[in-house]
UniProtKB/TrEMBL annotation:
Chaperone found in the keyword field: no
Keyword Calcium: no
Family: Belongs to the enoyl-CoA hydratase/isomerase family.
GO molecular function, one term: enoyl-CoA hydratase activity
Listed name of the protein: Enoyl-CoA hydratase domain-containing protein 3, mitochondrial
NCBIfam families for this protein: PRK08139.1
């Protein structure tokens, strides 16, 4: 049976593939449920140090399933309850990404539109192929991308986000890198290897330290300056008290590889 979100483990790196190419990997109800289940399992899997998220077929993700959304209007309330539930479930899945202990890298090709662009913005890192297009283009059909806006406006400058949201215009991979939506742009044929190289670099680091740092990174971003320093200092204390951190520091002093458990 074909799974909507396929999981392949390559050593300590987990590869998740959105596997609905016929719908450009739209975030249908079933796709959101499958992603949630995968993230819940990965959050408990200490054997995985890095997660790569990609899409099967011609695109990364085209956003919500519009046909499914239209069908949701059939309720007596015209779809209000269904839409409220849909956007709540989607927001929950997006928030699971920064909450995961492992760094999540989006491997992006084709298009990443609306909630698909939100998915890229929600990932910790992103590598995209030349020719990839990004957009929060719901305004073109009368639906302002308010929930994608939350993730987008936190990773790109406000005026860039607002222009994308109000014009519905797409940006290419080069512009996406320029404004901070993605980290790297590579030739299409090098996308998989470039993402793998980045994932392997992260996987070589002390996993416990990266997990502590990732959580602290997002927590402090929501704080004022003084509170952020206080929080980050407390996290560094916890990090320094790890056995493997003590070993890593000593190994550096002694100019040898660390003996991490």
């Amino acid at each position: 049976m074909t799974e909507l979100v396929e999981l392949e483990k390559r050593g300590v790196i987990a590869h998740l593939t959105l596997n609905a190419p016929h719908s450009l990997n739209a975030l249908s109800d079933a796709m959101l449920a499958a992603l949630k289940a995968r993230f819940e399992a990965l959050a408990k899997d200490r054997s995985v140090k890095v997660v790569v998220l990609k899409g099967a077929g011609k695109a990364f993700c085209a956003g919500h399933d519009l046909k499914e959304m239209q069908a949701g209007r059939a309720g007596e309330d015209g779809g209000r309850a269904y839409f409220a539930d849909l956007f709540t479930r989607c927001a929950e899945v997006m928030q699971m990404i920064p909450a995961l202990p492992q760094p999540v890298i989006a491997e992006v090709h084709g298009i990443a539109t609306a909630a698909g662009c939100q998915l890229v913005a929600s990932c910790d890192l992103a590598v995209a192929a030349e020719g990839t297009r990004f957009g929060v283009n719901g305004v073109n059909i009368g639906l302002f991308c308010s929930t994608p806006m939350v993730a987008l406006s936190r990773v790109v400058p406000r005026k860039v986000a607002f222009e994308m949201l109000t014009t519905g215009a797409f940006i290419d991979a080069a512009r996406a890198r320029e404004v901070g939506l993605i980290n790297r742009v590579v030739a299409p044929g090098a996308l998989e290897s470039a993402t793998a190289d980045l994932a392997e670099t992260l996987a070589k680091k002390l996993g416990a330290a990266v997990a502590l740092g990732k959580r602290s990174f997002y927590d402090q971003a929501e704080m004022g300056l003084a509170a952020a320093y206080a929080h980050a200092g407390a996290v560094m204390v916890e990090n320094m008290l790890l056995r493997d951190t003590a070993e890593g520091v000593q190994a550096f002093i002694e100019k040898r590889p660390p003996d991490w458990a």
